[in-house]
Design a protein that fits this description.
Blueprint: H1 3-10, H2 19-36, H3 47-59, E1 71-75, H4 83-89, E2 94-98, H5 102-115, E3 120-123, H6 127-130, E4 138-144, H7 149-156, E5 160-170, H8 174-180, H9 182-187, E6 190-199, E7 206-214, H10 226-231
Parallel strand pairs: 1-2, 1-4, 2-3, 4-5
Antiparallel strand pairs: 5-7, 6-7
Helix pairs in contact: 2-3, 2-5, 3-4
Length: about 230
């Protein structure tokens, strides 16, 4: 898939990319390929697959959740996915990329500078370390390919305001993860609003977008230390 082909597909969900935005996606793709030879950013190296499986995949959120001028945190951003594609497509978003790995943080800052993005910052830390000072600071939290849903709920939900949403981008085993996450949602005063299922284009790969709404403030004891979360998920 080329950037132009992605742009045509996105028009079906009323997302129209400008020439500048398409140029930013192309530059981002080239930076990913260049820097992937220096640090481990992604197992996907083919340009067409990067566009489809990283950029288009990230923007599938638009099919289920409207984004405009919200304050968004991308937790475990890695190579900037989905935070940077969303920022390119929706420039009015205020985006925080949370990433604990120093080399990836360096790459993210280079991308932000090279693409001329504004209202976007990178925090070099782990979710459980900064949740106290960032608690209920965001309208939307997003995570892609980070951890099972019951773990993600505890890490991500404290960051969003009451009535805010957490969006988890998942693959074909999402339904199984949802079953295991029921107790975490109960303890974290949240509920699943929708599970949207769709497919990528080339290989028809299944993608599921889980939208979770926060109903009430969450106990300050969450999130716990990551070792405890991993050992005994909610």
């Amino acid at each position: 898939m080329t950037v132009d082909e992605m742009s045509l597909l996105l028009q079906k969900s009323n997302l129209n990319l400008t020439l500048t935005q398409k140029e930013q996606f192309s530059k981002y793709m080239n930076l990913l390929i260049e820097w992937n030879e220096k640090i481990n950013l992604t197992a996907i190296k083919n340009p067409g697959e990067i566009v489809e499986k990283h950029f288009y995949d990230s923007l599938l959120i638009n099919q289920v959740q409207s984004l405009n001028s919200q304050k968004v945190i991308d937790i475990g951003s890695g190579a900037g996915l989905p935070g940077i594609p969303l920022k390119i497509a929706f420039p009015e978003l205020e985006v925080t990329l949370l990433e604990p790995t120093n080399k990836k943080v360096m790459f993210l800052n280079i991308v932000i500078k090279e693409l001329g993005l504004s209202k976007i910052i990178v925090i070099n830390d782990r979710a459980e370390n900064i949740s106290a000072q960032q608690r209920e600071n965001y309208d939307v939290a997003i995570a892609r390919a980070v951890a099972p849903l019951n773990v993600l709920n505890e890490l991500c939900l404290p960051f969003i305001k009451v009535n805010g949403i957490f969006i988890a981008l998942k693959g074909p085993i999402a339904d199984e993860e949802v079953c295991f996450a029921a107790n975490s949602l109960l303890k974290l005063s949240s509920h699943i609003e929708t599970i949207y299922s769709t497919n990528l284009i080339t290989n028809n790969d299944v993608r599921k977008i889980i939208v979770i709404k926060k109903d009430h403030p969450i106990s300050s004891k969450y999130p716990r230390k990551f070792a405890e979360i991993k050992k005994k998920p909610l």
